[in-house]
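Please predict the structure of the following assembly.
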Amino acid sequence: MSVIYFIFQQTMLFTIPLMIVALGGMFSERSGVVNIALEGIMIMGAFTGILFLNLTGGSMSGQLQLILAILIAMVTGGVFSLTHAYAAINMKADQTISGTALNMFAPAFAIFVARVIQGVQQVQFNNTFRIDSVPVLGKIPVLGPMLFQNAYITTYLGIIILLVSALVLYRTRFGLRLRACGEHPQAADAAGINVYRMQYAGVVISGALAGLGGLVFVVPTSTNFNADVAGYGFLAIAVLIFGQWKPWKILGASLFFGLMKAVAAAYSGIPFLASMGIPSYLYKMVPYIATMVVLMFTSKNSQAPRASGIPFDKGQR
Amino acid sequence: MKRKNKGNYVGVLSSVFAIVIGLFVGLVVLILCNPAQAFPGFFTILTGAFTHGMKGVGQVFYYATPIILTGLSVGFAFKTGVFNIGTPGQFIMGAFGAVYVGIMWEQLGSAHWIAALLASIVMGAVWGLIPGLLKAYFNVNVVISCIMMNYIGMYLVNWSVRGNKALFNTLRNESKNVAATAVIPKMGLDKVFAGSSVNGGILIAVAVVILIYVLLNKTAFGYELKAVGFNQDAGKYAGINEKRNVVAAMVIAGAIAGLAGGLLYLAGTGKHIEIKDVLASEGFTGISVALLGLSHPIGVLFSGLFIAYLTAGGFYLQLFEFSTEIIDIIVAVIIYFSAFALIVRSILAKLRERKAKGGEKSEGGDQA
């Protein structure tokens, strides 16, 4: 049983950041703006968040420090994504190009600033955030070891974000309007919705979530940040498409990716898999190959928001 | 004909506008970090490439060789209506093909380097073929499948190099040296640019640029590719087989990016395939090169040289207390603003309008 708990805990570490970032991408695409800059935004969010952890290490309790870092990462991501929103919405620029520019900018900026501030590009931090066992809940059989031992508050935050996202998207006026802008902005405009404002909201939410996702990815898996989130931003785009732009399917897709990542990272510690003798590279490749195969069968009738990626033009029909 | 020239002129102007803003932002960042050294540092970025005379120029050509080709790969695909973000994967697969043949097939003698380059072209083409087929027959988004192919390619190459004792240098965790016969000849360039790493690769790259220019602009096949790129439905209506087109476009784009990998890893400059889980940066730089060069083959040639020139200058920045990442920041800003071609166009249109009003001449229908 302990092996299963171990795999599950590992899986959550990979799943949660992927899910948060993919949900961010969902808000952007559902509003009609493709956000390929998720990778860059993750790096920016992780950078400022980790820098904060580095500078304030030991000056306050671990959990409070982490919560403040989370807020900083979200604000950073939101602000940084404004540049993409401005290019895509006001300037009607090609959204892939401006996203690519953000992806290039972020790691260079993070390394440059880290070198200016502290001389080296790696930003170190002390991981004091792991919760060995949540009081009371950690003692529940089965569920306790799976969700409430060796956990981070970011895991619960991720679950809350999922619930709130599903609620906002399908049960609020804002969500309905956002979806309308992604499907047919001209019709939304005719109905009196301010399309520009909705699209700004979509992109900024995606930025805040991607910034958070960057921090959530780095904190449990490392003790320093090197201007890199291992391609998780791109992977999140795959999760988004795999999940057909729907919150619950995104959860499923990120669980699948997270499990594969966890197996690739920890398969030597899992007796059953270690005895099979499959090279770790195969596990590393499986999520990407699986995505391609699934896309082959689902792309014919894609659920993508109709107007995603097309700059909104009021005069068009 | 006249109208076409005007379009190019606006495009070039928007690139120049983007470059000026990018350099300006770079200067501001330098001033914010260290006001005393900012101006000498900035001067170094602009002129550093010439620090060692002809050697420096040779270095620029050496840096430019792979990124001109990855840029051409992205630009060519853009012209046909596809965004090829798969250059990092195609690049590293090409590099693997070249290194594999370069180490294993020593018996080929003087044709060895040519065979190795051909291998790089084939490997790159295969890595472009798959997204092309998926797009044509399963309607899979090319951007997504290319991103997937990047990672699959990276892991596959790392796995293949590590798993093969003949290829793998265990001590340094990278591929072994290729045979001397597989290194690309200097083609006389070492005499002109003494002391630099430049080799015949730059000549091959320029030849490929010309080849693609001719293909796109002087052949019926190129015309069809571009027609589909402009308007897929119109192309289909005109009887162009758009499935065949997208596959052909991706195969050619992949082949070019693969060749870029071959040329870099056969340059004989101590470049090895390192076993790291990082995508090849030359592939992503290609996207910048293509965007700055307006996806036009000749434009790509110049923008590749320009970015290589900045990179070479940035190398000398370490004399000051600045890290070379400032170059990436500048390039990113340039790309960001080059996406703003629309503003430049509207500013120009306004200027023209004002001119027309001032001269009391109305030129109807000249607004495009």
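Chain A has a mean pLDDT of 87. The CA atoms of residues 139 and 287 of chain A lie 33 Å apart.
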